[in-house]
Amino acid sequence: MTSGAGNLSGQPRRAYALDALRGLAILGMILSGQLPFGENALPAWMYHAQVPPPEHKWIATLPGITWVDLVFPFFLFALGAAIPLALTRRLVHGEPKWKVALFIVERGVLLAFFALYVEAIQPHVISGHPSTATWLIGLLGFALLFPVLTRLPDSWPAAWRWGIRIGGWVGAVVLLGSLHYPEGKGFSLGRSDIIIVVLANMAVFGSLLWWMTRTKLLLRLGVLGVLIAIRLSNMPHPIEGWVSDVWRWSPVPWIYQLYYLQYLFIVVPGTIAGDLLLRWLRCGPEGSDGAPAGHEAWPAFRYAGIALLMLSLTVLLVTGLKARWLVPTILITFALCALGWWLMSKPATATERLIHALFNWAIYWLVLSLFFEPYEGGIKKDKATMSYYFVTAGCAICLLIAFSILVNVFRRKRWAQLLVENGQNPMIAYAGINNLVLPLLALTGVDRLLSVLEMWPWLGFVHGALITLLLALSVSAFTKRKIFWRT
User: Fold this and answer.
1) Secondary structure (H, E, C), 47-74
2) Is the pTM of this model over 0.90?
3) N or C, which terminus of the chain has less Cβ within 10 Å?
4) Residue 291 contacts residue 351 (beta carbons within 8 Å)
5) What SS3 state is found at 325?
């Protein structure tokens, strides 16, 4: 979903800070998948907290989170924040309700297809030891996504657009039907990317929930209360009865399970942030954000202090919860929240009001998460605990505030330009790592040169960072050429 609000008040503006947060999330996901494993593994805080090195086996009782555990929730939060921006644009343009509903369903269907397709065309899924032919198939699979997902210009003749779209779909379906995998099977609904499956559920249910409650915030929060009740009846240990029956029931298990709706605990806070961004976007073009007469805008050093505080809160929570310094972490967090509340008092401009409102919500989600922390044996990403959902939502707001200050106050958008451009094209980034960058490196032999770096742990990190950078630059090139995938 786009982070732009279109021409909501005759004054177009775009939430570039949200693009940057989404870009940080998608590149963080890519980087975490390129880190060295096994004997040359990095310290435990460089991996998911529940699968520490060197064995990388899941330990269900191990509490804590790392930076790796933040990136997917940040992406979900950004998805939620983009929902009000995208749907409001359609609603204010007078689209019939059935068209808005069709848009939501179409987006869910596209993501469901993407979940099946992007998993099926990965070279390492097709073969345990990819050959030249396997890498070429991976590139072909990536190329076929362009006619399927690219936003084609309205100025093109309708026959061209339909022909390109149909050609892409036919090619993708034929490819899926012709592939065979190491276990000897072909296409299967059971072979899908779980991250995209969750995104599909959140895109549909998050959009419908926001649409139905866009003027009723308390009702939206009330739905979260119902979800909390359902979850507490089923996790960590299910209580047999009609609630557990609802929890387990699914007409299409490969794409929908009620378990996935827990991620609304992140997406709904995102929609609230999106509502605030929408209000800010309606204030007018950038540069018209001055303080009213009789009020004084915050000085630059105050903004700098707020941005530093937002980063410090995120680092503190990740470090303290991972190290299990619970009492000091909680006390310092409360103190920093109080400091932030003081620093953001008396907002005068639209941007100051946005930051002030965002931080109030960040305080709420962070405090809620810390009171949930002892529940389920401490915070965990896998399987996700209540504390995990709310602490990641709060941290996402903190970074959104930091990016807002960088981009909208200090006018340093170019410092985050690579993040912004990847955040505007996240699905190309997601598919591009396994089906563009890695195949090209393998086919040109560059991967063998870079593999020398994998002999030592931190050089292995450099290896992963270089591959992630290549991916980021590739996505940036598509974005600069206005080639976007519908998401």
Assistant:
1) CCCCCCCCCCCCCCCCCCCCCHHHHHHH
2) yes
3) C
4) no
5) coil
Query: According to DSSP H, which parts of 127-261 are helical?
Result: 132-149, 158-178, 194-213, 217-232, 242-248
Residue 462: strand, helix, or coil: helix
In this structure, which amino acid lies at residue 193? Answer: D
What the block records as the tokens of 177 is 């039907």
Question: Which of 374, 383, 373, 390 lies closest to 236 in space, CA to CA?
Answer: 383
Amino acid at 440: L
Residue 392: both structure tokens together: 């990641």
Q: Which residue has the tokens 């093109």?
A: 156
C-alpha distances in angstroms, 9 versus 92, 132, 357? 10, 53, 21
pLDDT in tens, the chain (487 residues): 555 443 333 334 689 999 999 999 999 999 999 999 888 899 999 999 999 998 999 999 999 999 999 999 999 999 999 999 999 999 998 899 999 999 999 999 999 999 999 999 999 999 999 999 999 999 999 999 999 999 999 899 999 999 999 999 999 999 999 999 998 888 999 999 999 999 999 999 999 999 999 999 999 999 999 999 999 998 877 788 899 998 999 999 999 999 999 999 999 999 999 999 999 998 865 445 666 655 678 999 999 999 999 999 999 999 999 999 999 999 999 999 999 999 999 999 999 999 999 999 999 999 999 999 999 999 999 999 999 999 999 999 999 999 999 999 999 999 999 999 999 999 999 999 999 999 999 999 999 998 888 888 999 999 999 999 999 999 999 999 999 998 7
In order, the DSSP letters of 82-94 are HHHHHHHHHHHTT
Q: Are 420 and 403 in contact (CB under 8 A)?
A: no
Distant-in-sequence, close-in-space partners of 106: CB < 8 Å, separation ≥ 6: none
CA-CA distances (angstroms) from residue 201 to 91, 109, 135? 22, 10, 31
Q: What does the block give as tokens for 14?
A: 């775009």
- Of 400, 473, 414, 481, whose CA–CA distance to 15 is shortest? 400
Task: Tell how far CA 212 is from the center of its chain.
Answer: 23
* 112's tokens: 């469901």
| H or E stretch at 326 | helix 326-343
- Rounded to an integer, what is the distance from CA 234 to the centroid of its chain? 26
How distant is the alpha carbon of residue 122 from its chain centre? Answer: 21
Backbone phi, psi, residue 378, to 5°: 100, 160
Exposure of 452 by Cβ count < 10 A (0-12 exposed, 13-18 middle, 19+ buried)? Answer: exposed
